[in-house]
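Researcher: I'd like a structural prediction for the single chain below. Treat it as a standalone chain; there are no partners to consider.
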Amino acid sequence: MVSSGYASNPKVDNDVMKKVAEIARISLSEQEVQEFSKDMESILDAFRDLQDIDVSKVKPTFQPLETKNVMRDDEIEKSLSQMDSLKNAQQKEKGYFKGPKAI
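Model: Treating it as a single chain, here is the predicted structure.
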């Protein structure tokens, strides 16, 4: 296992939880500090379990799935005529769509 540089078993006590709350700019009661300290310790335990997994033979990647271009080929096709494009438009003027004035 590669050392991450962090303490191997840091404990989340009430002082640490108060500091985290201060950094997050949230106000916690003493009861909430105690509850969240236990929750934070549980979360850190889950990360400690992840540190025990051997990933030495796993190729690093930022994409878990292979990505590929899904764009279609750019092919020239016949488009609508100006008359066909405007035939259902309620507001048109001089061969163009007419919209609200933009300021």
